Task: inverse folding
């Protein structure tokens, strides 16, 4: 079991790695339950440091092992998600309870958008530490997906992008996103 002092997780909780999704998740070894979001009472600062050290990809996101053929209609995208208190699930691996308003989330994301546009950083680099999605560990890389796999607003924006292009702010039930089409 992972040391609670290192991870910031409550007793009996540990970080495991999903082979199917290639993402970390949280497992309670006593209750035998798992979840994508950290359990209540997690020290999010300790968890953030632990995840950055042991569960982030230091290199650029890699494509799926067997990328789909171009004619399958699937694309590959990365995103940076900023949740707010009215998001579908107002919690993340970074914060147990997100209390910021939608306007505050918008201001945060606009700041990230400016940093990316100015060339000071990349969407992937920011996603590693700032995205409220568990895909942060893969620099926001969501892998390949087709029509009907994502929320409509997200999907419409992602499919409208050209390879390498980054969207403006996209508002979905999950929160506010910047999306970059990778393939």
Result:
């Amino acid at each position: 079991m992972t040391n609670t002092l290192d991870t910031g997780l409550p007793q009996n909780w540990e970080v495991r790695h999903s082979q199917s999704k290639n993402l970390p998740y949280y497992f309670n070894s006593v209750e035998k339950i798992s979840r994508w979001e950290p359990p209540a009472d997690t020290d999010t600062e300790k968890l953030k440091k632990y995840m950055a050290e042991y569960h982030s990809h230091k290199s650029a996101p890699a494509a799926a092992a067997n990328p789909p053929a171009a004619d399958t209609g699937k694309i590959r995208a990365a995103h940076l998600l900023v949740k707010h208190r009215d998001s579908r699930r107002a919690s993340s691996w970074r914060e147990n309870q997100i209390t910021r308003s939608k306007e505050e989330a918008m201001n945060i994301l606009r700041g990230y958008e400016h940093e990316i546009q100015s060339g000071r950083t990349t969407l992937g680099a920011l996603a590693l530490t700032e995205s409220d999605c568990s895909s942060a560990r893969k620099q926001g890389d969501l892998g390949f997906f087709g029509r009907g796999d994502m929320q409509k607003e997200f999907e419409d924006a992602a499919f409208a992008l050209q390879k390498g292009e980054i969207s403006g702010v996209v508002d979905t039930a999950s929160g506010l996103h910047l999306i970059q089409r990778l393939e």
